[in-house]
Write a structure and sequence with these properties.
The chain is of the alpha/beta class. 38% of the residues lie in helices and 22% in strands. The protein has one domain: Rossmann fold. It has helices at 16-25, 44-51, 61-66, 69-76, 93-98, 121-130, 166-191; strands at 5-10, 31-38, 56-58, 81-84, 103-107, 135-142, 152-159. Strands 3-2-1-4-5-6-7 form a seven-stranded mixed β-sheet, with helices on one face. Helix 1 runs parallel beside helix 7 (166-191) and helix 6 (121-130) packs across helix 7.
Length: 193
Amino acid sequence: MPKEFRIAIFASGSGTNAEEIMKHFSHHPRVEVVMLLSNSPEAYALKRAEKFNIPTAVFTRKDYKESQVVLEWLQQKQVTHVVLAGFLWLVPAYLTDAFPDRIINIHPSLLPKFGGKGMYGMKVHEAVKEQGEIATGITIHLVNEHYDEGRVIFQASCPVGPQDTPETIAQQVHRLEYAHYPRVIEEWVLGSA
């Protein structure tokens, strides 16, 4: 019997956050991950989904921008919530309209700092170091049709010291992501009932 809440994960890369999310919900009584979608056939996130027996789908830019195929896949799986986990494309209006306040994303900085188009992954951590920030962290936010502008629902921070490099900053931020994103997703999903 389908569970009450059904999540689709969108990922573009290695999928470490996606794996933490799949692990978190693997035996959840009310929430299940029913699909992982990617815009890259080489994304390691697809392999991670296979470990959990979660169906995957890959789409092209044309599929995503010029057709409703992605929405049709989500509807076929009766998806109730969409989770972005390292997904780099802007979400089009047809998806934000179909899932109002039901799409969530994580960003590796304390928004509004270091957000927007082109700010992802190591680019964010390099900018944090370059600007001499004394703290950074994660922002979990709802998604609208603009990069990193949806309503913030959670932030966590970590210090940045003079000895930190973009790589050590990334490690600290990853720890925050793994510690908080699955739990915040669960609270968000269950709170939307």
